[in-house]
Amino acid sequence: MTLRIGCIADDFTGGTDVAAAFRRAGLRTALVFGTPDAGTALPAECDAAVVALKSRSTPADEAVADSVTAQRWLWAKGAAQIYFKYCSTFDSTPQGNIGPVTDALVHAAGGAATLHCPASPPNGRTVYQGHLFVHDQLLSDSPLRHHPLNPMTDSALVRLLSAQTPHRVALIDWPTVRRGVDAVRDAFTAHQQAGARHIIADALTDDDLAVLGAAALELPVVAGAAGLAEGLGHAYPTAGPAADVPLPQQVRAAVLAGSCSARTLEQIAHFYAAGLPSLHLDVLAAAAGRDVTGEALTWYDAQDPGLPVLIHASAAPEELAAVQAQLGVAEAAAQVEELLGTLASHLVERGVRRLLVAGGETSGAVTTALGIRAVLIGDEADPGVPWTHATPEAGDLALMLKSGNFGAPDLFTRALSTAGTDMGKDTDKEQT
Ligand SMILES: Nc1ncnc2c1ncn2[C@@H]1O[C@H](COP(=O)(O)OP(=O)(O)OP(=O)(O)O)[C@@H](O)[C@H]1O
Ligand SMILES: O=C(O)[C@@H](O)C(=O)CO
């Protein structure tokens, strides 16, 4: 058993993001969906295993129970170190779940202090003087201040985390990080001796995160976003680069989108502009009993099999608000997830072998409907957006689970462009 690091991610697309980070660091990485049990197996021998939970917005006691179960499973598979992956925008509330889950993981691992850093520089998340930035804005000035579940109206990480834990929270500032691994270790020890349990570190670049990763190599629990996971991964001695997992070629390809994030809407617009077959699902009609799934499949069967297709519930804010006002937020989401999950099963039955899913909740619905419990991580199409490969029992399926705000505007067209027979031309990769 070669497993070195076990990771618990608090949502599915966060799971693919952190798994891609470990793979970039040269670790062979597997991703398991949902709370594992004694019968859950890893899909292959690997250096890093990520368990992706849906624990970001659940009640804190459920999130804690699922996370500790995942921790025990990862330990049983041989993991010596546990990484808790939360969102690079620190998505949480004063009730949790970052504080309670980290406290429980640390307690189960013996109570030594933990290092935190949510920085993820490739996606514009940096931490300076303990304040979290999203590109050039403080978190609290960014669109995250309007998040529907956990509006982020404060950027001060020590204050945010202190509200979620009874333990002391301390900061290692950027000048210390710049002085290198020994300086970080000394500062960490001093904070721990002064009674801190959670020690947040500043980081502006991948080099800073490499310093933090090396400093944290011996800690039983480390916490943050994908950036620190990659820093930690680079600190592990590896046998060599992770092997390539080839993408299925000349196959049917589809995008299923339920994310209404601004970046997903741009990616959808790009797909329409490329003249590729696209279908918008009528959520209100489905709620009223119309066979929207059957209509979508009839539409799909009429398309050129050599072209990728897009089927989406994703809608602009005005349409989303109107649907939610009529059905209620939870019922609207349930309708969409039922539609997209059912369609995913039918599309795979019809031979789709490259499937791109946009949105964290949507990804949960699709993987559950397809019965996929574990995948291996392949190449990234964009930072934090890798292809994943389902185990053979699920068929030779390449699956891409995309966080709402991740990926360049041309991601959908580019990722699927080499799948079919008629669409040989790669579009140029645009920068985010
Ligand atoms: N037309 C629609 N009307 C109402 N709700 C919708 C509609 N389209 C999508 N939704 C709901 O919006 C939510 C989008 O969440 P999801 O997590 O899939 O995307 P996201 O928040 O952009 O992604 P991430 O969590 O990765 O940032 C889902 O619950 C989905 O069911
Ligand atoms: O860290 C991030 O921003 C993402 O991996 C994520 O968690 C999206 O839900």
Provide the number of structural domains: 2
**Secondary structure: helix percent:** 25-40%
Q: What strand order characterises the main sheet?
A: 9-10-5-11-4-1-3-2-16-17-18-15-12-14-13
Level-1 CATH class name of the largest domain: Alpha Beta
Give the averaged pLDDT, no decimals. 91
Determine the structural class based on helices, strands and strand pairing.
alpha/beta
Radius of gyration: 21 Å
Q: Care to count the β-strands?
A: 18
The biggest beta sheet reads: 15 strands, mixed
CATH superfamily of the largest domain: Putative sugar-binding, N-terminal domain
Give the low-pLDDT segments.
Answer: 423-432
Report the β-strand fraction as a percent range.
Answer: 15-25%
Bound molecules: adenosine-5'-triphosphate, ligand LCNOYBR7
How many DSSP helices? 15
The 3D shape can be described as: globular
CATH architecture assignment name of the largest domain:
3-Layer(aba) Sandwich
Gap between N and C termini: 39 Å
CATH overall fold name of the largest domain: Rossmann fold
Protein name: 3-oxo-tetronate kinase
Family: Belongs to the four-carbon acid sugar kinase family.
Catalytic activity: 3-dehydro-D-erythronate + ATP = 3-dehydro-4-O-phospho-D-erythronate + ADP + H(+); 3-dehydro-L-erythronate + ATP = 3-dehydro-4-O-phospho-L-erythronate + ADP + H(+)
Function: Catalyzes the ATP-dependent phosphorylation of 3-oxo-tetronate to 3-oxo-tetronate 4-phosphate.
